[in-house]
Amino acid sequence: MLISNRVFHAAGVAITDREAVSRMAGALSAIIGPVGFYTYSLGFWAAVLASLVGVWKSIPTVFADCFCLLRGVPSDPRNLAIQPGQPLYRAGLLFMPLASVPFSFFGSPLVIVIAFTVLGSLCVPFVAATLLYLNNRIAFSPPMRSNRLATNVVLGVILILFGFVGVWEITELIGN
What we know:
Layout (H helix, E strand, L loop, with lengths): L1 H8 L10 H13 L1 H38 L3 H7 L5 H13 L9 H13 L1 H15 L11 H27 L1
């Protein structure tokens, strides 16, 4: 995002079509050379693939686990229910493509992408805050234990950085 902002936005070029990735790689090629082109292209598609694989593995697991937790299912059957091939896991797989169908009727998909990006960016600070709170508040039985000082520092830095960037972006949005 930072590179595309520097290369395209600063130059006044709008990125709105399906050729944005190849145009970005071409722009980097002009600046850095062929290494920039191939590094950006491979890195972009690796990030897309990792995101897709991560989502297609994690969402059904989270769906099945939440369903079992809400129903009060004990831990052994719950661990079985989150395994690939189980009915709840398959229901989570079915949920993923069907949940996006209503969004296909929106006229501007870019707004949806931006909304999901904003919502997704809130996940990391939320997880960091949750880990800071829960892992320092609850007394765990061995072998689990509360956060170490280094873990608390890293989670605190994450929260501070995300807070700083969030405030900065909001002030820039309001200022423009």
